[in-house]
Specification:
- The chain is built from 13 helices and 13 strands.
- By secondary structure, the protein is of the alpha/beta class.
- The chain has 2 domains: about 230 residues, Type I PLP-dependent aspartate aminotransferase-like (Major domain) (Aspartate Aminotransferase, domain 2, 3-Layer(aba) Sandwich); about 130 residues, Aspartate Aminotransferase, domain 1 (Alpha-Beta Complex), CATH 3.90.1150.10.
- Helix 1 packs antiparallel against helix 8 and helix 2 packs parallel to helix 8.
- The longest helix is centred in the C-terminal third of the chain and has 18 residues.
- It binds pyridoxal-5'-phosphate.
- Pyridoxal-5'-phosphate binds next to helix 3 and helix 4.
């Protein structure tokens, strides 16, 4: 059996629909900022439970645009070190300074680390819902932000449809950024979307998205924007995937339930504990190896002897130890011990919307054999 780390799924009827829609788009001549983008935005906003959504060309731009709206230039923003490059990079591209903070053992930004990191020039905090589980301490971090007059930006790149106490990711902060990159739970090819309840931020984000132009047709530029537009073709793909989101999440939760049930059979691996009030979309199924187990060797044997590919970790090296941020922000081994330890021991089991029960069981059986 061959088990890929992830599988992108476009059912045949969706592929047909996408081709028909693309034909329609080409016929209409409206290739960007048109009806499919609007449809994706309206459907996504209503699904998340916010007033507004803005479709953009990547999850990275979905982070940078709100940061520009918060005017972070020459101010600092607190970012967890256990995140993807794009989270701190967006702060730097928006002219801000990054302050890294640690996480707790559930991978959520640690509220006490946030409190310690606040400086006089701090304007906000980015909270990342790692692996698709809404950060369990979201409300505590929100409270700290409110007490200190800081914005809260959710990096919900992984968390389409995930909830905390029934409330959807993307509705907890002043704004949120989702990614539609191909490996994500739903994709538009490339793309992203911002969600917000803040009408002023929404209006400004529209301007930033389109080269800082005050209006679509004019040529008056009022903001330092960029080309962050989503094409209609990408939006059409995104609409078909969005219509599958709930179905995909159900399928991923089924895979996760098999892993949850069977992982205790392997003594040297423990799953990330997700509290019952958080419902993950299982973008990733995260587990930890006991200290001393060689992750690279485990991955190699799983792949070579059993055809099982583990997916990329989230993340294998914390940002403060990444070469580029070490230089810009500064950072050394030992600065954020929890993130460093979890990054070393984390594995992500294969998940997708089309994995069968037999495949999920095969993953566990293979791991059992390699780790026995
Ligand atoms: C946590 C996180 N933030 C931001 C991004 C950036 O998204 P994109 O690749 O769509 O620019 C990613 C994705 O890949 C991510 O994993």
């Amino acid at each position: 059996m061959q088990i890929p780390a992830a599988k992108i799924h476009f059912p045949p009827e969706d592929r047909k629909k996408i081709l028909a829609w693309i034909d329609q788009i080409l016929e209409s001549g409206q290739l960007t900022l048109g009806g499919y983008g609007k449809r994706l935005e309206e459907a996504f906003a209503s699904y998340v439970g916010v007033n507004r959504a803005i479709a953009v060309n990547s999850g990275t731009s979905a982070l940078e645009i709100p940061l520009r709206c918060f005017d972070v230039e020459n101010s600092s923003v607190i970012v967890p070190t256990n995140t993807f490059f794009a989270t701190p990079a967006a702060v730097i591209h928006a002219g801000g300074k990054v302050i890294f903070a640690d996480c707790t053992d559930n991978l959520c930004l640690d509220p006490s680390s946030v409190k310690r990191a606040i400086r006089r020039d701090t304007k906000g905090v980015i909270l990342v819902h790692i692996g698709g589980a809404v950060a369990p301490q979201t409300r505590e971090v929100r409270q700290i932000c409110q007490e200190h007059g800081l914005f809260l930006l959710e990096d919900a790149a992984h968390a389409h449809g995930s909830t905390l106490e029934g409330q959807k990711a993307g509705s907890f902060g002043e704004a949120a950024a989702f990614s539609f990159y191909p490996t994500k739970v739903i994709t538009s090819g490339e793309g992203g979307i911002i969600t917000t309840n803040d009408e002023k931020l929404y209006q400004r984000a529209l301007v930033f998205r389109d080269q800082g132009k005050a209006g679509f047709l004019g040529n008056i530029h009022t903001e330092m924007g960029y080309n962050w537009r989503m094409s209609e073709i990408h939006a059409a793909i995104g609409v078909t995937q969005f219509e599958r989101l709930e179905e995909f999440i159900v399928a991923r939760r089924r895979v996760a339930s098999i892993y949850d049930r069977r992982l205790p059979e392997i003594r040297s691996v423990s799953p990330l504990r997700i509290p019952t009030y958080v419902k993950s979309n299982y973008y990733k199924y995260i587990a930890y190896l006991d200290k001393g187990i060689d992750r690279a060797q485990l991955k190699k044997e799983l792949k070579e002897k059993h055809g099982v590919s583990l997916s990329g970790e989230v993340y294998e090296l914390p940002c403060h130890l990444q070469h580029v941020f070490k230089e810009i922000v500064g950072g050394k081994e030992g600065d954020f011990p929890v993130s460093e330890d979890l990054a070393r021991r984390m594995i992500c089991l294969p998940t997708s919307a089309v994995m069968t029960d037999a495949e999920s069981n095969y993953v566990i059986d293979s791991m059992k054999q390699v780790l026995k």
